[in-house]
TrEMBL record:
InterPro entries: CB, DNA_brk_join_enz, Int_N, Integrase-like_cat_sf, Integrase_catalytic, Integrase_recombinase_N, Tyrosine_recombinase_XerCD
Domain Core-binding (CB), first and last residues per copy: 61-140
Keywords: DNA integration, DNA recombination, DNA-binding
Protein name: Hypothetical bacteriophage integrase
A Gene Ontology BP annotation from the UniProt entry: DNA recombination
Domain Tyr recombinase: 162-318
UniProt cross-references to Pfam families, sorted A to Z: Int_N, Phage_integrase
Molecular function per GO: DNA binding
Spans through the membrane: none
KW Disulfide bond (keyword) present: no
Family matches, as CDD domains: INT_Rci_Hp1_C
Amino acid sequence: MYMSIKKLDDGQYQVDVRPKGSEGRRYRRKFSTKREATAYERYIQAQAHNRAWIEKSSDKRKLSEAISLWWRYHGQLLKEGAQSKKKLENLSQRMNNPMLCQVTKKRIIDYRSDRLSSGISPRTINKEVALLSGVFTQMINAEEYHHEHPIIGLRKLKERKQEMAFLSSSEISFLLQHASGDMKKIAKICLATGARWNEANDLRAENVTPYRVTFVATKNGNNRTTPISKELFDEISSEKSGRLFTPCYDKFYLFFKSLNFNLPKGQAVHVLRHTFASHFMQNGGNILTLQKALGHATIQQTMEYAHFSPDYLQDVVALNPLNERP
């Protein structure tokens, strides 16, 4: 880029700018002060930069290629990265694997509408779009994508509040009466600590010490240690090293569904975690302790269980203004 500010014999300052080099357009203008000349020079330079950004060629790479780059830079580091990659690939197929320049807010809005029409819940669709947004974010961070992020600023679909289901004491007894082997031990760990099924299923012998368990590589990436009873420790501890249990989610899922607990649609094995939290609060547990036990990043996530507390909002009765009357 060629540019120059020159003071003339009459005391004025002349700006002589070629933002795109000697072959580009030339801008010349005179000013009475150097400050005005410098401001104009910077203005011309900024305009040229902005136009160059606008005139960048369309990115004609396919969305599938962007997903591969996301996996390379970020996805493979995630605990559930392989599952997320599969979901992204399915999303790309449903969108007919468009070029990146074709992934616009309008295209995403149309995709969401089609998914809603086919009976997919807003919650699921929001998760899909969030995954896709992450692909563009990682590409921009890696300087692989030089256009506007197509999803930033797009509002989420409004989600209906899902009913919070949990097992009663009699249902817990029924479950443990019919479960056996590793499935029964893992279910007990989930009910005793609020662990997710995979967190409990992935426990290794070195993660179990008297009288606590440490869940590693959790959903938020942080380790979490939770106390357990001596009885549960004696039942699950082992002198061997390595994994304590064989993977058995699919087997337990089928077994759990066969018990017909009449849970809301879409809720199954994860209800063990809800059951722990709900009974914890019903028995007078502290909401902050529950947050730590569940490993929630914010108290807002844990507040979903606050209404189970027997003392929840009881101060409303004692402290409302009607009680102030003589």
